[in-house]
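ok here's the first one, seq then struct tokens
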Amino acid sequence: MMRRLPHKTKQFFFVLIKLSIVMAAFYFIYDKLTNNGALKFSDFWNYILKNGVFSTKTIILLTFLSGFNWFFEILKWKVLGSSVEKITLKQAAEQTLGSLTASLFTPNRIGEYGAKALYFPFGKRKQVMIANLTGNVLQMMATTVFGVIGLYFFINSYQLKMFFLKPEGYPFFGFLVIVLLGFLFFFRKKLTLKKFKISKKQLGFCALLSVIRYFIFSFQFFVLLQLFGVNLNYFEAMTIILSMYLLASVIPSIFVFDVLIKGSVAVFLFLLAGVNEVIVLSVVTIMWVFNFMLPSLLGCYFVLTFQPKRNTVSA
């Protein structure tokens, strides 16, 4: 039989794994900023300096919006996570930001499921994954519902002729809505898996938080467009922004390259409205920096200080 590893050896490997995750996160962030094929970092930096985007007031506003964006995500996870095992807002913040860092370089943020599960006892980890899935489905619901509405007005405004953006292609998006509504119906009563339960009231509250988050980062995108001098009113800009998030969300991606996908979709959509490509890519990059890069760097601290739960299940 194989001998069990000494406790100190286990601790060493555990620390090594945490350091590897943090180093990988730093590398992917650095690589994204310096080796962006769509927009060179030097060009991006010179462009925002030229346009005076990063004034003190702007930085405060963007930080404020990003902070609220993640506060509502943390609050949502507190409700969902507490359905498995009672957690505080501080613990929810640690788990949310730590798992963000750990999932930064995994396809479609799949690593988030395993990372959050590690914060709970072994016997409850399946329930944690269901709770996390519930939160992601609710967020996707907001993206799909409002995205379809935005896409409808966008199509009518620009009279696009591609099949999936014509009336003949509406069933495709209708199918997405039906599937997501099916998930919502499944969770609506009381989703029960062993000791995991979520009530209608909790589910409705989490859905509301998802909608609030959605409009916070959509509004943040609009604010950046205005700072770059884009001549689009709120309604015109939002129809494109909502369409962009919908189309980008259905394309599988490695999370760190999510900005490239959103950038490509955004460039295509905004070019139809006559918006300069460099402006669009700069806005997408700034959104990524404030909403993902900075929270991921904060999450590095929680990864390094993480201590796994013992493999026990509380009564």
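and now the second one, same deal
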Amino acid sequence: MSNLDLRPVTKRCGGNGRTGPVRDVQPGKQVPLGESTLVRRLLPNLGRRMVGAWCFVDHYGPDDIADEPGMQVPPHPHMGLQTVSWLHDGEVLHRDSLGSLQTVRPRELGLMTSGRAIAHSEESPRDHPRLLHGAQLWVALPGEHRHTEPSFEHHDDLPVVTGAGGLTATVILGELAGATSPGTTYSPLVGADLALTAGTDTRLPVDPDFEYAALTISGESEVDGVRLAPGSLLYLGCGRTELPLRAPTDCALLLLGGEPFEENLIMWWNFVGRTQDDIEQARADWVRGDRFGTVHGYDGPPLPAPELPATPLKPRGRAR
């Protein structure tokens, strides 16, 4: 996925302290993605930049694309992060500069590690299902791994945890309730898709050293007593050993968590770096056609790089 804003705001991200349990509903904003997809951008936002190493969250759909091209995101670069593609409905065709070609379907993990540099495109296949609904997320790579070799993984058999009272959890990344995803991670984190049947009233064991957020994908959920409409993100902080969950209706939500990220970062356009030089070099390399490679097979030109802001890019921690 890409940030298609031609005037991207500098995101000063990173760690600096932990918070206890909180209940903070984070506002999202509507952002166009590609030719015909509108997404709700939930991270980063005015109140919060990261949840653990999770640094970018878009939620889209459900959209009726029967007579539309659907998602069409041209080739674009990434550096210093992992991308996570997660669908509830539809299909997304992934291509990248390693030569990967993979269709990602509902509840399958498409995981791309950019490391030092990679480029990819994402599109709805020409013959695609009627609905498109899912989330696209980024995970910031810690300093010791940010220059790792790029890679792509596709996992179509993820572990599932069933709980009391109508809870089913698919572990996307990391570990939850003793089940571990096969996806590669570089910092302590978790991502899980929680499905709750109407009337569910349960408690999910969680790690008190992790901070968490919950994103309602469909239906209405109640997380730690807070009612959430679809597309709402609730930041929960740290210090919990369990998370109360209720389902007034059938619903699904994403649980994102991890140890608070203790590094200062700059996130600009599709890059996560540590210094202004990191970002300037990455942009220059993309413009020149160096380092990121070529995505073959996409019907259209790659995304042009936006201009850098006039003000200096400074790495910052979590606290404003």
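notes on #2: Residues 41 and 58 are 5 Å apart (CA to CA). The longest strand covers residues 54-64.
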